[in-house]
Amino acid sequence: MTTPLRIDIVSDVMCPWCIIGYRQLSQALEAAGTEHEIHWHPFELNPQMPPEGQNTREHIIEKYGSTPEQSEQSRQQMKALGDDLGFDFQWTKDSRMHNTFNTHQLLHWAGTQGRKHDLKLALFAAHFTEQRNLSDNAVLADVAGEIGLDRAEAAAVLDDQRFANDVRGIEQFWQQQGITGVPAVVFDKKHLVTGAQGVDNYTSILSQLAELRG
Known about the structure:
- By secondary structure, the chain is of the alpha+beta class.
- Helices cover 55% and strands 12% of the residues.
- The N and C termini lie close together (10 Å).
């Protein structure tokens, strides 16, 4: 009997292409009927981001040298892709980027409860659809509580930083594997695919993997 396909996804909830790529992959997996298990791993797009965060448009222009027009065009492209995939991007002129180290700690804790995947998707929605402030630990604890996790325990995890060293270690592991950008998807612990590939490409990849796995 074939074991489920292991899929490791290195990502950050600040990364729009990470949720786009996941939705594309998810559609391909469903269409192919591929048994699978997904494991999310931490990556910080902006580890030096201050606690108060930064306006998203300003950040993109500053980091990538984009013009305001290019930035808006990119948003519209991602919005259209999201709409096709059933994900609602709701950027505003006040949208902000946040430091996600605490977010990754909360996800690590959720993993001990068997709920990391659910929380990851909820955080994508909280950030991109609801425009909530993920720099605020109270907001992070709220999101955890909203999916049925213990809100008080979530708040305690963020307060005492008990998983800080674990998250740093995992981040360093993936950096040592050569991961410098996200999304980075590893199939069966040996086939790396980077970026949002599109439903058709993911479908082709799954077909090739099925042949390799016999």
